[in-house]
Amino acid sequence: MQALNILALTLLLGVTLTVSPFAQPVQAQPWRPVRGSILFGISGMAFLEQQEDSTSFLIVHDNKGVGEGRLAIITVIGEQAPEYLPINWSNQPLPVDLEALTAVPGQSPPTFMALTSSGTVYHFRLNGNHQNVSVLNVFNLPNLPEGTNLEGFALQQIEDKLLAVWAHRGNQEEPGVLYWGVLDLKTNEITPQGSAPLTVPFPGSNVRHISDLKVDSAGIVYITSASDNGNNGPFRSAVYVAGGLSLQDNRIVFRQNQALIPIYRLNYHKVEAIELLPGKAGGIILGTDDENMGSSVWGFDGMF
């Protein structure tokens, strides 16, 4: 089984490296504005549900003040602008600076985990009416170096292991850092299994090497990168395959992509959220935190 996983990973990475120079430009799919103003930036997103003519996602905002939103649901219906439904964070104290969001695999009803930039993880579920949340557990990521600023967190089931992946964003002077480990949901403990520095070739200035990440069911790690030139931009972003994670000798190992090629280059937007939607109507879905310009989503054309 492990040999098959390694072979599949090798093939997937090879295909990605082969086709990515011919990937669609961003102009092929228009951005859809979600909300204006700095309080509505999307810093993380997770698939919620799909119906015949609509798809819904849970999103987090990186707000810090009392009375500012933390969670919302956006629903895309056909060619319409996304519907926006704010969700009340009823538990106190409020989280500060939520930067990533992931669904917890295999949970019914579904639960989610949201991460702050300082490494606090909130495990929660939506109440039946989707108007507020119930926090199930709160815990901290392990062994974070001083000065860590996190912007990515994802969970994925790899054989019998619940894989957790998180990332320090890095900046112009230092690389981003990808971390991974195994999460025990019963104890909320993550056993670290490794880390790797990562530097992207684009954007080239004021860069956050990792602004979000997701891991697919084959262990392929997708990341977004973004330039941040202040609240008024200009912004630029890109999407990459960073490498792949697999189980070898009962341990999670990372095969890093040493020749990073942008799958997409994205002008005028600061992408801080990525989600992978499988199936015929699926694709790579992106969300932005464009500061004073608000937020937008991308990747929905042709879905319905």
Description:
- With 304 residues, the protein is mainly beta.
- The chain contains one helix and 21 strands.
- It has one helix spanning 2-19; strands at residues 32-35, 44-51, 54-60, 71-77, 83-87, 98-103, 112-116, 120-126, 133-140, 150-158, 161-168, 176-184, 189-198, 207-215, 220-227, 236-248, 251-256, 264-267, 271-277, 283-288, 295-298.
- Strands 14, 15, 16, 17 and 18 form a five-stranded antiparallel beta sheet that branches. A four-stranded antiparallel beta sheet has the order 1-21-20-19, with no helix packed on it.
Write the layout of secondary structure elements.
Blueprint: H1 2-19, E1 32-35, E2 44-51, E3 54-60, E4 71-77, E5 83-87, E6 98-103, E7 112-116, E8 120-126, E9 133-140, E10 150-158, E11 161-168, E12 176-184, E13 189-198, E14 207-215, E15 220-227, E16 236-248, E17 251-256, E18 264-267, E19 271-277, E20 283-288, E21 295-298
Antiparallel strand pairs: 1-21, 2-3, 3-4, 4-5, 6-7, 7-8, 8-9, 10-11, 11-12, 12-13, 14-15, 15-16, 16-17, 16-18, 19-20, 20-21
